């Protein structure tokens, strides 16, 4: 009998427990004023250009590093089911919000579709995020797989910022 090898991962999965009720966590994701306070890498300033957080809407922003480097990004919302689920596609963009290549890798997938669910138990919220490239080429899929740990670390730091933000809310 032939031995089967495990398929390479094509999806990012992150599970995080947050010390806040589900409604508050959901609001932190869907209220643009809250989202701008914790979203993104530690130390980066977020400048929001468009904040239309609803199905069919866009959250378009610029991230500025402490060194002054800038990256334009956007989240395009597909589904918002309060307070249980959010589905959005994220990617890099130009200043006008048009999809653009990632500044750090020429073959990074243009778009990543993310589904986030929120479950509450005893006043704590378990956030589960699943993300995968949208219609990637083979090269983009390979780059995504190679970058999974970098993305996992980035979201872990972002969700730590969220947990810290919620503690003050």
Short synopsis of the structure:
With 169 residues, the chain is an alpha+beta fold.
Question: Could you outline the blueprint of secondary structure elements for this entry?
Answer:
Elements: E1 12-18, H1 22-30, H2 32-38, E2 45-51, E3 58-64, E4 70-81, E5 85-93, E6 99-100, E7 112-121, E8 124-133, H3 138-168
Antiparallel strand pairs: 1-8, 2-3, 3-4, 4-5, 5-6, 5-7, 7-8
Domain Activator of Hsp90 ATPase homologue 1/2-like C-terminal: 19-166
Protein name: SRPBCC domain-containing protein
Family: Belongs to the AHA1 family.
How would you describe the overall organization of this protein?
Helix 1 crosses helix 2 (32-38). The chain has a single domain, classed as START domain (Alpha-D-Glucose-1,6-Bisphosphate, Chain A, domain 4). A hairpin with a 5-residue loop joins strand 5 (85-93) and strand 6 (99-100). It has helices at 22-30, 32-38, 138-168; strands at residues 12-18, 45-51, 58-64, 70-81, 85-93, 99-100, 112-121, 124-133. Strands 1, 2, 3, 4, 5, 6, 7 and 8 form an 8-stranded antiparallel beta sheet that branches. By secondary structure, it is α+β, with helices and mostly antiparallel strands. The radius of gyration is 16 Å and the shape is globular. Belongs to the AHA1 family.
